[in-house]
Amino acid sequence: MINKTKTIILLAFTWGSFVSAQIGIKTDNLNPSVDLELGSADKALILNRVANTNTVSNPANGMLIYDMSEDCVKVYQADKWSKCIWNNPLNPLHKSPNPGTGSSVVQESILKK
C-alpha cells in the first residue's frame, strides 16, 4: 500500500512538471504567448481596488492596482510603486501628477468625446 501511494505521488509530481497552464475566458483562439486572455466583447477587467499602496503586503514587480486614495492605476516596478499611470478622466477635481505625460493626453482625448 505504501509503495502504491509513493508511486501515485511520484506520477503526480512528474505529470505536473510537464503541464503548462493557460486560461482563456470567452475566447476560442488562446494566444500561446499569454497566461490569461479575456475575450469578451461586452465585459471588462477590474483591477483590485486598494485603499492605498501601503495596504498591499509583499508587492511583486509587475503588480497593477487601482489606488482609491489617489483615484488612479499604479504599477509596482523596480521594487517601488509608480506614480499614477492612469488617472480617472471622469473626475474633474483630479489633477494629473505627471502633466504633459502620455496619460494626460489620453485623458484629454477621452474628455473631448
Overview of this protein structure:
Residues 1-21 form the signal peptide. Residues 98-107 have a biased composition (Polar residues). Residues 91-113 are annotated as: Disordered. Keywords: Signal. The chain is an alpha/beta fold and 113 residues long. It has a domain at 49-112. It contains two helices and seven strands, in the order H-E-E-E-E-E-E-E-H. It has helices at 2-18, 102-112; strands spanning 23-25, 36-38, 49-50, 64-67, 72-77, 80-81, 86-87. Strands 3, 4, 5, 6 and 7 form a five-stranded mixed sheet that branches. A two-stranded parallel ribbon has the order 1-2. Strand 4 and strand 5 form a beta hairpin. The longest helix is centred in the N-terminal third of the chain and has 17 residues, at 2-18. It starts with a helix and ends with a helix.
The helix tally amounts to 2
Q: Report the biggest beta sheet as strand number plus sense, adding barrel if it closes.
A: 5 strands, mixed
Q: Report the C-alpha radius of gyration, rounded.
A: 21 Å
Weakly predicted, low-confidence segments: 99-113
Please provide the ordered H/E string of secondary-structure elements.
HEEEEEEEH
DSSP strand tally: 7
Shape: extended
